[in-house]
């Protein structure tokens, strides 16, 4: 499908992409670029990339450059890459905020290099390539954010790659994407972290945390994600995240009012509404199904 692919940032996500591409024969050569040399060596050992290289050495002749770096440095890496890009190269990313990146990429790239914004809706609370897995994207939604300037051939090739990964390509405008993920990804992380910190600030926090059962652990699982990565995400998507917080606060205040008023009817109604919506959500990611099956066998 591709002759040469360069993955800049071979962590959990970049490593999982590379592993799927290597094992699925989606590229003749997958080259890893990463500032952490030990992580890069591990990526080669795991088969997440065929070989490691510096950015300037890796880029000439590249068909596809995947920017899998932390969102705070993605634009800087893209700027460094420009002098070494080959005409016809396609560039995509996996970042969870699109606005500024898409606008800057289209402004700075030469007309014969094509950018297609991307964001796989998958992940784990792990860092580094050691957590990478080839089935991470199977069954997951994979958002792409084309604009009127997006090259049609480049767009189709990225769609084809996503489908080869076993994911489902979904097209959204880049600003629409940022609004959507503020609610379904960024706000949940804020809530999980806030819930953990609420317990941590209680006088009997040790007792509370020691007694934490499955509900608390499931609800706060994502709070274990990389803090620096989430700092950059929340600040980069600041306006959309603040809107999501305002909407959530309104819902929380409504529930608080029902409890204060001892309004059992409305409380049941709102809880049932949430229950129905939650039960309608499909869990179709392969690795999650495997985890659930494993947990059931262990019971």
From TrEMBL:
Q: Which UniProt keywords apply?
A: Amino-acid biosynthesis, Aromatic amino acid biosynthesis, NAD, Oxidoreductase, Tyrosine biosynthesis
Q: In which pathway does it act?
A: Amino-acid biosynthesis; L-tyrosine biosynthesis; (4-hydroxyphenyl)pyruvate from prephenate (NAD(+) route): step 1/1
Q: Does the keyword NAD apply?
A: yes
The UniProt entry, under SUPFAM superfamilies, shows:
6-phosphogluconate dehydrogenase C-terminal domain-like (SSF48179), NAD(P)-binding Rossmann-fold domains (SSF51735)
Fetch the Pfam families from UniProt.
PDH_C (PF20463), PDH_N (PF02153)
Catalytic reactions on record: prephenate + NAD(+) = 3-(4-hydroxyphenyl)pyruvate + CO2 + NADH
Q: Which residues form the Prephenate/arogenate dehydrogenase domain?
A: 3-289
| EC number of this enzyme | 1.3.1.12
| InterPro entries listed in its UniProt record | 6-PGluconate_DH-like_C_sf, NAD(P)-bd_dom_sf, PDH_C, PDH_N, Preph/Arog_dehydrog, Prephen_DH
Q: Indicate the family of this protein.
A: Belongs to the prephenate/arogenate dehydrogenase family.
What's the protein called, per UniProt? Answer: Prephenate dehydrogenase
């Amino acid at each position: 499908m591709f002759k040469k692919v360069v993955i800049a940032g071979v962590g959990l996500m970049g490593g999982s992409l590379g592993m799927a591409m290597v094992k699925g024969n989606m590229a003749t050569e997958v080259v890893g670029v990463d500032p952490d040399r030990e992580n890069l060596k591990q990526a080669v050992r795991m088969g997440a990339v065929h070989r490691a290289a510096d950015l300037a050495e890796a880029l000439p002749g590249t068909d596809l450059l995947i920017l899998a770096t932390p969102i705070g440095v993605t634009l800087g890496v893209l700027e460094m890459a420009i002098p070494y890009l080959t005409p016809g190269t396609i560039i995509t990313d996996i970042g969870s905020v699109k606005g500024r990146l898409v606008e800057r990429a289209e402004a700075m790239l030469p007309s014969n290099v094509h950018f297609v914004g991307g964001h796989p809706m998958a992940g784990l609370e792990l860092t580094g390539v050691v957590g990478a897995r080839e089935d991470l994207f199977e069954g997951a939604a994979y958002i792409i954010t084309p604009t009127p300037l997006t090259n049609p051939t480049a767009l189709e090739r990225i769609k084809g790659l996503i489908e080869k990964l076993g994911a489902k390509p979904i097209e959204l405008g880049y600003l629409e994407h940022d609004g959507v993920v503020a609610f379904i990804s960024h706000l949940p992380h804020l809530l999980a972290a806030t819930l953990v910190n609420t317990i941590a600030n209680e006088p009997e926090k040790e007792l509370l945390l020691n007694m934490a059962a499955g509900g608390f652990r499931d609800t706060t699982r994502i709070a274990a994600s990389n803090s620096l990565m989430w700092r950059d995400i929340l600040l980069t998507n600041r306006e959309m995240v603040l809107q999501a917080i305002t909407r959530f606060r309104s819902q929380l205040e409504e529930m608080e009012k029902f409890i204060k008023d001892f309004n059992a009817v409305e409380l049941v109604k709102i809880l049932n509404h949430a229950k129905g919506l939650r039960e309608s959500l499909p869990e179709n990611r392969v690795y999650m199904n495997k985890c659930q099956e494993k947990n059931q066998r262990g019971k």
